[in-house]
């Protein structure tokens, strides 16, 4: 850290440590950095061993002094932990009048707790808050009164008042001869009072000068087109320094780092550590990112929270799917394939809700190869049974551990270093959660899981990599640090100085009067000026940068750095090698391989898919190959209620049942009991549907569906009634046919025989499809033409029966001499011959193995196809660029 005049603080701090003084820092990061610098200085002085320096943060030091008071045996209250305070505030807020109207009691309690801390630090009087404030401030004052009373009754002390309590007995404590404070931006009155009391007790108190000696002479201000290019330039600058072995610490300060953390990490990793993208690369990281991610977003913790969220009652199918794919369960690797297959089967069943209590039986029935999972689920249900009733947080903490243990969490696979650290943080979180049980309040299980989830969501977790040569920090974290090389990014005129953000529970007038942080634009400006000056002085030649545009907004430099010498991006030293992204992008050139023909199907080979072979091969040969020969299908995602396909199946079934009983047009026109026939058919259709899916529909769904089917079938019979005489032929047994060498099963919805003996093929449709989809060399819906070509009897028509509420009609083609409203008359024999030729060719191409990426109508064909990432059509501009076309 030596070598630059602007390293204004370090010498003073190291000197104080040498003299055995206690250094108190504003942040943990500064404490750690100082510890490392002290060790380096000792080594540089040729020492092999030295006494540990006394470096602590302010809260740690106050707590240490409180510990002395406890050791002295005086009668002292119990100091609450942070989560305990939060739980207590929540209890107070929830119990207050009007709490029912609060949308977010948890967030309200958090803001109230912050207001309480600020009120003590800045010496705001509760009576003054009540007097000067609005309704919110008065509500806060009321909660604060109850919070204080509860603490008094129970003998608890919160951290906002800890410094005042320590101060009361400061004369009886063993104090250091001198303390030196470093890196503080503000000294609130509470802290100043404490320091005065300290000084009065004989301790020498020194505050390091917070202002730098002056801005680095070589500071420059550089614009970049957008935030991404600005970040990449900063990463390339850092790599250039590393490559040429530049001495000293490299800092990159990013304004708004917390909100851009993932993007910043990706850019820095891509430029500084492309090898980290290769699995198993265990080199130490060359950069440290100070902003953490919520603990709940780390996979190991997310998996634990997901497991705790499962209940023996109904769970969303997606939660059960997550359980089956959870890699942190016992047997997850061994049973990976079997569990994935079970997931697929459950999705196909289509149940939106799945009872946790049914899972072991489901596993046994449908989960071949999932024996370990079945055993775990039984253990889990036992553990659930033992933890069904409401209990306190510490009891829940133990119960949660048992529930996770029942699943064998976190599994058998050795954890990597990040997972170990996350596991450690999780254990700490569970014990923090347990500590919130001090109020003795019992919670239901769902409430306890939600609270634990909230805690994991607000706890920022960052694995340790701090010794890295490049430090990427937020603006405030850079407080008190200095660097040999510094880049400050994101200081544009829309973000710096930031907006005022006063606490809503404290009267603004009082906040301004006391000069509290973030209370007004003036206060923000003053703060931003101070931070900017410090950053300017934190290195000899700092680079300040800003984007010129973000989305639609045009941006300029922050007015606080407008006076810094402007420089063009080209003037900044930057590593010129390719980033990981560029390497990957460039490598595709050598991967080019035209491979669009699969091995042909053997003569005897059986082919699944039936008529779908023709539909998919016609739409896109690659899709037919991938779905029907490779089995690359989209996984189902059950919806609440019945999905459109299930509702279509029911409509088919009710009309099939109805005509099985009526048989002829004459019966339709003469029987008086048509309503009863339709009612019986609707019952039969639902019964069949339930039998096929293996369990009944919820009663309310079934009743609604029965009603819908009756109405729709009765309306459809009115359409049939208008026709000339016909007879519905009893559906034939399943039969097979072959076209173009592809064998398929024939299951025609309905065949009507007319009085002259010719027949009509009828296909029920609940969607919107028209006979236009049968035409062209690549027909969109080849199923009915296919049936037409293999029917073998004289044909009078090939028809869709469109059965949709409010849209009931026949549409299709009839022979020249047949009349049916809505249908076009054609030479049906000639049409069938043309279809035969087209379909034989399509079937033949499938058998030959033609599998090129060739969507029939470009984007329109691809829009609903799930295979876009497999076929990579987006990388194939010719195939993907179809016209949008008009949809049926
Ligand atoms: S996304 Fe388009 S090109 Fe790719 S398989 Fe599907 S239809 Fe074919």
Structural write-up:
The chain has 888 residues and is an alpha/beta fold. Among the domains are: 10-73 and 167-207, Rossmann fold, CATH 3.40.50; 81-157; 220-292 and 465-571, 3-Layer(aba) Sandwich (Rossmann fold), CATH 3.40.50.300; 295-461, PCRA, domain 4, CATH 1.10.486. The protein contains 33 helices and 27 strands. The strands form 8 sheets. A 7-stranded parallel sheet has the order 9-14-8-15-16-7-19, covered by helices on one side. It has a 6-stranded mixed sheet with strand order 20-23-24-25-26-27, sandwiched between helices. α3 packs across α8 (162-168), α16 packs antiparallel against α17 and α18 (417-435) packs across α19 (445-458). The radius of gyration is 37 Å and the shape is elongated. The two termini are 71 Å apart. Mean pLDDT is 88; it is low at 1-6 and 880-888. The protein binds iron/sulfur cluster (SF4).
Tally of separate helices: 33
The CATH class label of the domain at 220-292 and 465-571 is Alpha Beta
CATH topology of the domain at 220-292 and 465-571: Rossmann fold
Which structural category fits the helices and strands? alpha/beta
Major sheet strand order: 9-14-8-15-16-7-19
């Amino acid at each position: 850290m030596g070598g630059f005049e602007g390293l204004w603080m370090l010498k003073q701090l190291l000197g104080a440590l040498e003299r055995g003084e206690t250094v108190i820092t504003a942040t943990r990061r500064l404490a750690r950095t100082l510890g490392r610098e002290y060790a380096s200085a000792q080594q540089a002085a040729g020492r092999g061993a030295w006494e540990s320096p006394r470096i602590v943060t302010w809260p740690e030091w106050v707590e240490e002094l409180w510990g002395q008071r406890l050791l002295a045996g005086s009668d002292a209250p119990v100091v609450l932990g942070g989560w305990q305070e939060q739980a207590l505030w929540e209890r107070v807020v929830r119990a207050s009048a009007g709490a029912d109207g609060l949308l977010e009691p948890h967030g309200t309690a958090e803001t109230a707790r912050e207001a309480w801390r600020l009120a003590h630090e800045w010496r705001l009087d509760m009576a003054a808050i009540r007097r000067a404030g609005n309704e919110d401030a008065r509500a806060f004052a009321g909660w604060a009164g109850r919070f204080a009373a509860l603490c008094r009754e129970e003998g608890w002390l919160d951290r906002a008042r800890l410094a005042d309590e320590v101060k009361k007995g400061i004369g009886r404590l063993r104090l250091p001869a001198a303390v030196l404070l470093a890196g503080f931006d503000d000294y609130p009155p509470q802290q100043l009072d404490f320091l005065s009391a300290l000084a009065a007790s004989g301790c020498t108190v020194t505050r390091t000068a917070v202002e730098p000696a002056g801005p680095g002479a070589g500071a420059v201000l550089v614009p970049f087109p957008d935030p991404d290019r600005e970040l990449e330039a900063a990463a390339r600058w850092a790599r250039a320094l590393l490559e040429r072995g530049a001495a000293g610490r490299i800092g990159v300060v990013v304004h708004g780092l917390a909100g851009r953390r993932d993007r910043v990490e990706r850019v820095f990793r891509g430029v500084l550590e492309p090898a980290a993208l290769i699995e198993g690369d265990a080199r130490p990281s060359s950069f440290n990112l100070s902003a953490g991610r919520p603990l709940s977003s780390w996979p190991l913790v997310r998996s634990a929270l997901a497991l705790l969220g499962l209940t023996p009652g109904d769970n969303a199918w997606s939660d059960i799917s997550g359980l089956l794919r959870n890699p942190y369960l016992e047997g997850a690797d061994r049973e990976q394939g079997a569990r994935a297959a079970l997931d697929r089967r459950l999705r196909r069943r289509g149940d939106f809700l799945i009872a946790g209590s049914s899972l072991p039986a489901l596993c046994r029935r449908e989960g071949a190869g999932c024996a370990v999972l079945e055993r775990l689920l039984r253990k889990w249900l036992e553990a659930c049974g033992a933890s069904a009733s409401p209990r306190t947080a510490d009891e829940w903490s133990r119960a949660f551990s048992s529930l996770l243990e029942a699943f064998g969490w976190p599994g058998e696979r050795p954890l990597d270093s990040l997972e170990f650290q996350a596991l450690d943080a999780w254990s700490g979180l569970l014990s923090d959660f347990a500590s919130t049980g001090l109020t003795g309040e019992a919670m239901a299980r769902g409430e306890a899981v939600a609270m634990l989830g909230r805690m994991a969501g607000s706890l920022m977790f960052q694995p340790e990599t701090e010794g890295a040569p490049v430090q990427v920090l937020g603006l405030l974290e850079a407080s008190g640090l200095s660097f040999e090389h510094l880049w400050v990014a994101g200081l544009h005129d829309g973000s710096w100085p930031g907006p005022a953000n006063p606490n809503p529970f404290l009267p603004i007038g009082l906040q301004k009067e006391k000069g509290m942080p973030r209370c007004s634009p003036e206060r923000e400006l003053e703060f931003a000026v101070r931070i900017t000056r410090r950053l300017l002085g934190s290195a000899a030649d700092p680079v300040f940068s800003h984007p010129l545009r973000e989305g639609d907004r045009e941006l300029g430099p922050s007015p606080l750095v407008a006076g810094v010498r402007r420089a063009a991006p080209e003037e900044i030293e930057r590593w010129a090698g390719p980033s990981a992204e560029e390497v990957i992008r460039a490598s595709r050139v050598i991967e080019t391989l035209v491979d669009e023909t699969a091995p042909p199907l053997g003569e005897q080979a059986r082919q699944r898919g039936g008529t779908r072979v023709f539909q998919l091969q016609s739409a896109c040969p690659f899709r037919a190959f991938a779905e029907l020969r490779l089995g690359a299908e989209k996984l189902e995602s059950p919806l609440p209620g019945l999905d459109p396909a299930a509702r279509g199946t029911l409509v088919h079934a009710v009309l099939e049942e109805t005509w099985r009983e009526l048989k002829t047009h004459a019966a339709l026109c003469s029987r008086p009991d048509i309503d009863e026939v339709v009612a019986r058919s609707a019952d039969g259709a639902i019964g069949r549907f339930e039998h096929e899916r293996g369990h009944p529909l919820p009663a309310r769904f079934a009743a609604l569906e029965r009603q819908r089917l009756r109405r729709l079938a009765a309306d459809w019979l009115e359409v049939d009634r208008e026709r000339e005489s016909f007879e519905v032929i009893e559906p034939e047994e399943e039969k097979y046919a072959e076209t173009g060498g592809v064998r398929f099963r024939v299951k025609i919805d309905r065949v009507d025989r007319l009085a002259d003996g010719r027949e009509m093929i009828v296909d029920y449709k609940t969607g919107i499809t028209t006979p236009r989809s049968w035409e062209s060399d690549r027909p969109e819906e080849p199923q009915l033409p296919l049936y037409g070509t293999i029917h073998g009897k004289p044909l009078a028509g090939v028809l869709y029966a469109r059965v949709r509420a409010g849209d009931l009609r026949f549409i299709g083609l009839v022979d020249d001499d047949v009349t049916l409203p809505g249908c076009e008359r054609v030479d049906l024999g000639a049409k069938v011959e043309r279809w035969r030729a087209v379909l034989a060719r399509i079937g033949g191409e499938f058998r030959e193995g033609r599998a090129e990426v060739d969507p029939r109508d470009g984007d329109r064909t691809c829009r609903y196809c799930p295979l876009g990432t497999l076929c990579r059509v987006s990388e194939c501009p010719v195939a993907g660029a179809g016209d949008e076309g008009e949809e049926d």
